[in-house]
Amino acid sequence: MEAPFSGVVLVTRGDETLLAEASGYAHRAHRIENTVDTRFAIASGTKGFTALVVIGLIAEGRLELSTRARDFLGEDLPLIDDRVTVEHLLTHTSGIGDYCDDDNPPEHPPWLVTSADYLAALGGFPQRFPPGERFHYNNGAFVVLGLIAERIAGIPFADLVRTRVTEPAGMTDTEFLRSDALPARTATGYLEDGRTNVFGLPVVGHGDGGIYSTAPDFRKFWAALFDGRIVPRRWVERLQRGERYGLGFWLPRPGVVRLAGGDHGVSFRSTHEPSSGVTATLISNDHRGGGPLLRWLDEFLTKA
User: Fold this and answer.
1) Within 10 Å of residue 201's Cβ, how many Cβ atoms?
2) In whole angstroms, how far apart are CA 84 and each of 63, 148, 244?
3) CA distance 296 to 290
4) What is the Cα–Cα distance from 79 to 179, expressed in whole angstroms?
């Protein structure tokens, strides 16, 4: 493993561990080393959890893919087209204005803690194109999904993720944490100039990103997902339909599903091949991310 990498790489096949390595520091000032079970921010990897919360509500008959976002937004976020549906939001085809556009990311995202904070941050961005016209990656769409889920279930979004995703999967090290008050065994992210990323992340994440997790927890996640322990199996199949993106999940090639995320001082990718049972997860707390290691993991998966 190259010295500049700071993070964890874990490759498994079913119950067999093929590779488990950690390097770099979880906290540089105190020289606390990363371990395989260190918790890291996973940025947009959170979107898959948001999708599963929403899919679970659909499976229970509490909404549909064709449900209009406006039915739950009411008078909030009036610039969102009334024709935008839950499916548009899940597939990045809604065309809504994005409060955190990857094409032009803000240097310092606003302090965001509560759902009310996110709702305020989402306002004022006009619709970019008609719903369903094309794919355009959209962070705000998944915050909107999180807000909709909260309004249907009547409980905070973080609790929905815990009770509907992480607890059924046995992911005991996965939760939303305050970026300015990280507990033990949790990595701090670092920028190119050596500063921490505390001013570059929301204080608490939401539907589009910000949860903290470990590589071993993603070993549990994929097994639980494809066992039907998070959402019914028919919906596991449905979320994998699409050319490159399904319902909240990347589809890099046929028979492979992926969650990925990147942010200031955060790099994450977890790829699973259900037919072989191989899972490859890389998480980094450094601005350089995975680099050559990501390419190596892709090559490994094609040969697995």
Assistant:
1) 24
2) 14, 13, 21
3) 10
4) 30
Whether residue 268 contacts residue 287, with contact meaning beta carbons closer than 8 Å, is answered with no
Q: Given this model, what pLDDT does residue 88 score?
A: 98
d(CA 254, CA 242): 10
Could you tell me how far CA 56 lies from the centroid of its own chain?
17
Closest CA to 48 of 137, 142, 135, 134: 142
Per-10-residue mean pLDDT for the chain, 304 residues long?
78 95 96 98 97 98 98 98 98 96 65 94 95 97 98 98 98 97 97 92 95 98 98 97 96 96 94 95 87 72 62
7-303 falls under which CATH superfamily? Answer: DD-peptidase/beta-lactamase superfamily (3.40.710.10)
DSSP assignments along 170-222, one per residue? T-TT-EE--TTS--TTBPPPB-TTS-BSTTTS-SS-BTTB-EEE-HHHHHHHH
CA distances for 225 relative to 8, 111, 139, 140, 170, angstroms: 22, 32, 23, 25, 11
Contact 87, 245 (CB under 8 A): no
Contact 299, 25 (CB under 8 A): no
pLDDT at residue 1, rounded to an integer: 41
Number of neighbours of residue 130 by Cβ within 10 angstroms: 14
Pairwise CA distance, residues 261 & 185, whole Å: 20
Q: What is the C-alpha to C-alpha distance for residues 16 and 192, in angstroms, rounded to an integer?
A: 36
SS3 call for 124: coil
The vertex-167 CA angle with 13 and 89, nearest 5°, equals 85
Compute the distance between CA of residue 287 and CA of residue 6 in angstroms, rounded to an integer.
9
Domain spans, the chain? 7-303
pTM of the model: 0.95
